[in-house]
């Protein structure tokens, strides 16, 4: 058994779980604070539940593209002869997560903007608060479509920031 690989795998699992739970928790709290201060999940508002689930799924899809880049930085540390400092790993991880969070906000905002353009005269937040399930499903569909289309570009952007060692060209 390769103990170094096993240790790395355990670290990756713990980081993935910890980061994902923290980001989803923060995102949910921000969503509630900014848009739905009085709406509760327990009050049988299916539209709010669908909407919140769509945002959490969108964030999860974006994180699924960012977390491999964080683990690549950790892998580089274990495979290189030159050791990367822990503070550097943390700073790169924070940078990747900040970029991902900002892009998630942009994706969510673009979905709301697109919905507003498509349906003038409808306030999607008010409709969701009033349990309009059809509006919620449409907003979430737009949100997830944009997320699925953009997520590969996010992965490419983040992987371009990984501090790979420089290789010499012997040719």
Describe this structure as you would to a colleague.
It is a single chain. With 171 residues, the chain is mostly helical. It starts with a helix and ends in a 12-residue tail after the last helix. The protein has one domain. The protein contains 5 helices and no strands. Helices cover 77% and strands 0% of the residues. The model has no long low-confidence stretch (mean pLDDT 78).
Gyration radius, in Å: 20 Å
Tertiary shape: elongated
- pLDDT < 50 stretches: none
* Main pleated-sheet profile: none
Order of helices and strands: HHHHH
Structural class category: mainly alpha
Counting structural domains, the number is 1
pLDDT averaged over residues: 78
Number of helices: 5
Through-space gap between termini: 38 Å
Q: What's the total number of strands?
A: 0
């Amino acid at each position: 058994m390769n103990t170094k690989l096993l240790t790395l795998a355990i670290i990756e699992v713990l980081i993935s779980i910890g980061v994902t739970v923290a980001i989803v928790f923060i995102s949910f709290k921000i969503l509630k604070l900014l848009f739905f201060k009085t709406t509760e999940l327990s009050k049988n508002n299916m539209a709010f539940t669908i909407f919140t689930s769509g945002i959490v799924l969108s964030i999860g899809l974006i994180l699924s593209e960012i977390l491999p880049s964080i683990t690549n930085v950790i892998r580089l540390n274990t495979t290189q002869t030159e050791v990367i400092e822990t503070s550097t790993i943390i700073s790169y991880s924070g940078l990747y997560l900040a970029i991902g969070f900002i892009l998630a906000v942009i994706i969510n905002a673009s979905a709301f903007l697109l919905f507003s353009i498509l349906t003038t005269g409808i306030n999607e937040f008010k409709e969701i608060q009033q349990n309009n399930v059809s509006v919620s499903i449409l907003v979430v569909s737009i949100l997830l479509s944009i997320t699925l289309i953009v997520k590969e570009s996010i992965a490419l952007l983040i992987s371009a920031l990984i501090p790979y060692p420089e290789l010499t060209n012997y040719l």
